[in-house]
Design a protein that fits this description.
heterodimer; A: about 140 residues; mainly beta; five-stranded antiparallel β-sheet; 9 strands; about 5% helix; globular; B: about 375 residues; alpha/beta; Peroxisomal Thiolase, Chain A, domain 1; nine-stranded mixed β-sheet; 12 helices
Chain lengths: ~140, ~375
């Protein structure tokens, strides 16, 4: 099957008032997650209400960027033109150290496949994809 | 506390449209064919029906088309996970509660364009932005169901030591069942070498771990216990059922990728019956991706958590085994009916209509649909 040409840009986020902070922070190389100001729980993906205590006092909170690897899958088939020449890449569900079950979908990079291990410690790497889009990728932790 | 027993509901008609990769049929035609097939199976007229639920159609429009009126219950659903079971459980609940007496349920799949079409070059220099929760997936090249299935599969392997060969054993067993089903698309036996050589879609998920997209109309007719004997075929009874949701539509960030909504659904279903897992003669467990069947085997108590891989590899789920599973061949082989085939196959097994793949004296079966955030299941019996 002839492969179509890759697109220049991945699907771009269209933030709304709840999510704008997340994308803005990434451009400044910060990982910010919505946090309840009353009970302290983090909430991702952002919502207008804390589902733990029903408070609407929510604000962005910076997190350490440290995480563990919950699961991963090696994407070998692209589902958008941008990724036609990016496969294979390793999609990862990472659990941020700040809170159990606080998970984020990302890429695992700088890690050969045979070295991937469940629960391995990771750290964030800010990757500028386009001038408008920086994504938080994760690599094996170096400093502990 | 004694079991909460719902009023019994019966299945009295099942049917499919022409099914195929490129049927050329419209969604209306798929609905009409499936509806007429189910009516014919039951020996019923459209006027006998007073309720309709559908996923993939439009309840009122479809009822009007098929001459089913007046209606005492109608519902058009869109819940992609529980899918057919969601529409079916709405029919069952409507009859059990007395809204209507006889309800037809449809799952109509009018095939989406293949993934190659989605990759065609687009004038994407200024791509449209992605909003909602999907904005946290799409920019990463995530969001395909095959990718969350890959994540769920990998987590099961990492947590329990489940192997690719165990997924292969399941795919091979289902294919052997499909060989005995003349309606299946894929009927040639498959070897482990062929399974392991199949391409990955999202490693460790292979193309053979995915159901097969096709056009399909499926229909099932439910009625009250009182009316169940009035129709052409031996009735099959809905002994118990459950519909479960545990959180948002977050397959990719589930709290627990190996144990999520199915255990809750199974516990609820078993709480309404005296029957136990060991009473089940054959199980029809959703296989949109193979990992889903694995999770249901564990959730329903047919094996312990984490032991579905060895349970399958030991041959328990084959015809002749302890618990034959997906005796029609599953959606990997009969094509994507989005759960409807599991209800229809369970019904046919309990009627004793399955010919070479018939499970001897089958009296109890279960069908399930969905995984992750939400799912549904029902336990069926023959008197």
């Amino acid at each position: 099957m002839p492969q179509p040409e890759a697109a220049v840009s991945p699907p771009m986020p269209a933030p709304d008032e709840l999510t704008q902070f997340f994308w803005d922070a990434l451009k400044e190389r910060k990982l910010m997650i919505q946090r309840c100001q009353e009970c302290g729980h983090y909430i991702h993906w952002p919502r207008p209400l804390c589902r733990f205590c029903l408070s609407s006092e929510l604000a962005p909170g910076e997190v350490s960027g440290r995480a563990t690897l919950y699961s991963w899958t090696i994407a070998t088939q692209p589902f958008h033109p941008y990724f036609v020449d990016k496969v294979p890449y390793t999609l990862a569900t990472v659990e941020l150290v700040e809170e159990k079950n606080l998970k984020l979908v990302s890429h695992l990079i700088e890690c050969p496949e045979d070295e991937i291990k469940v629960d391995m410690p990771l750290e964030v790497v800010f990757q500028e994809i386009t001038p408008e889009l920086t994504l938080p990728f994760f690599k094996p932790a170096t400093a502990r | 506390m004694p079991p909460r027993r719902p009023n019994r509901v019966a299945i009295v008609g099942v049917g499919y449209s022409t099914v195929g990769r490129n049927t050329g049929l419209s969604a209306d035609e798929l609905t009409i064919q499936a509806g007429k097939a189910a009516l014919d199976d039951a020996g019923m007229k459209p006027g006998d029906i007073d309720g309709i639920t559908t996923m993939g159609g439009d309840a009122l429009r479809d009822a009007w088309t098929l001459g089913m009126e007046p209606l005492n219950w109608f519902s058009t659903t869109h819940a992609a996970g529980p899918a057919f079971s969601y529409a079916a459980l709405q029919a069952i609940a409507a009859i059990a509660s007395g809204f209507c007496h006889t309800c037809i349920t449809f799952r109509i799949i009018h095939r989406q364009p293949p993934s190659a079409a989605r990759l065609a070059p687009r004038p994407a220099a200024v791509p449209r932005g992605v909003g909602g929760d999907y904005q946290f997936l799409a920019p990463f090249g995530a969001g395909s169901p095959t990718q969350w299935a890959g994540l769920l599969t990998q987590r099961h392997m990492a947590q329990y030591g489940t192997t690719e060969e165990q997924f292969g054993a399941h795919v091979i067993a289902q294919r052997d069942h499909a060989a005995l089903n003349e309606d299946a698309f894929f009927r040639d036996p498959l070897t482990m070498e062929e399974y392991l050589a199949a391409r990955y879609v999202s490693k460790p998920l292979r193309i053979l771990d995915c159901d097969y997209p096709c056009d399909a109309g499926s229909a099932v007719i439910f009625t009250t216990e009182e009316r169940a004997g009035d129709f052409r075929k031996k009735p099959v009874f809905v002994e118990s059922y459950a519909l479960t949701a545990i959180r948002d539509l977050n397959f990719e960030i589930l709290d627990d990728m190996t144990s999520n909504s199915p255990p809750h659904c199974a516990a609820e279903m078993w709480s309404k019956t005296d029957l136990r897992p060991e009473d089940v003669d054959c199980a029809q467990l959703y296989d949109g991706f193979t990992i889903i069947t694995f999770q249901w085997l564990e959730a329903l108590g047919f094996c312990k958590p984490g032991e579905s891989g060895p349970f399958i590899a030991e041959g328990n789920t084959r015809l002749g085994g302890k618990l034959p599973v997906n005796t029609d061949g599953g959606a990997c082989n009969v094509g994507r009916r989005h759960g409807a085939n599991f209800c229809i196959e369970a019904t046919r097994q309990l009627r004793g209509e399955c010919g070479e793949r018939q499970v001897k004296d089958a009296k109890v079966s279960v069908f399930s649909n969905g995984v992750g955030p939400f799912c549904g299941a029902a336990l069926l019996t023959a008197d």
